Amino acid sequence: MAYNLLKGKRGIIFGALNELSIAWKVAERAVEEGAEILLTNTPVSIRLGTINQLAEQTGALVVPADATSVEDLQNLVDTALEHFGGKIDFVLHAVGMSPNVRKNIPYEDTNYQNMLKTIDISALSFHKLLQTLYQKDAMAEYGSVVSLSYIAAQRTVIGYNDMADAKALLESITRSFGAIYGKKCGVRVNTVSQSPTMTTAGQGIAGLGQWFEMADEISPLGNATADDCADYVVTLFSDLTRKVTMQNLYHDGGFSNMAICPSVIEAYGKGKISE
């Protein structure tokens, strides 16, 4: 059901690769709520994914951009301002990748050049994006910039590797830049800490299937899906959350406030967990 929450608003969506992507779902929901959007991803991701299909479906312009390149980001923002004929109301930063995870290099044997790439792609790209938007005065007053995080920024999740360090930095950037952007321009900056989700990127994390099942069991409301996340992100783009900023907002069915649940204790007692 649509509520016209984003009627007349214009925004940029980073990171839609295919139908499994949270960014893909956010793009669909934003348009359903009345927004006009611009889609962006790296040239390689555009070639390998199906973003052009999403563009046709939503009537969106696709602009290739590497989120780690300030030059690309400057071109992207300039193109968006011209395309929209005015300032930008919302941006989703759904960008993250770890070469160490992709190459199955364990955290205790971290390749540091890979780790620097992880941090650049998954965290510093957010600072570069915010800085570009800020310097170009590209965001409308009470505009909203949202990035996707994960609970591994606060708690150890074995297998999440150096992505956890990147997410911790991502959340710090949100607070630091959010304070500046809010005070000087009235722009909101938040992260959403989503449940484990079966995206293409997420499936590259060792043990995600078992972790997904465990989190779903422990969470009182169960895991939040990519569609659920899209609904939540749209509210953060809307005028209903004009005073929410610098927050890491858990969207995980209550998992972040749980320690254990009776069914897991019962399974452990029966030896099911070790099977």
Blueprint of the fold:
Elements: E1 10-14, H1 22-32, E2 36-41, H2 43-48, H3 51-58, E3 61-64, H4 70-84, E4 88-93, H5 99-102, H6 112-135, E5 139-149, H7 163-185, E6 188-194, H8 208-218, H9 226-237, E7 248-251, H10 262-269
Helix pairs in contact: 1-3, 1-9, 4-6, 6-7
Percent helix range? 40-55%
| CATH structural architecture | 3-Layer(aba) Sandwich
* C-alpha end-to-end distance: 43 Å
Radius of gyration (Å): 19 Å
* CATH homologous group name: NAD(P)-binding Rossmann-like Domain
- Runs in which pLDDT lies below 50 for 5 or more consecutive residues are none
Strand content: 15-25%
The number of helices is 10
- The top-level CATH class is Alpha Beta
In order across it, which strands form the biggest sheet?
3-2-1-4-5-6-7
What name is given to the CATH topology?
A: Rossmann fold
Largest sheet: 7 strands, parallel
Report the principal-axis shape.
globular
Q: Quick one: how many beta strands?
A: 7
The secondary-structure class comes to alpha/beta
Round the mean pLDDT to the nearest integer and report it: 94
- What is the N-to-C succession of helices and strands? EHEHHEHEHHEHEHHEH
- Tally of distinct domains: 1
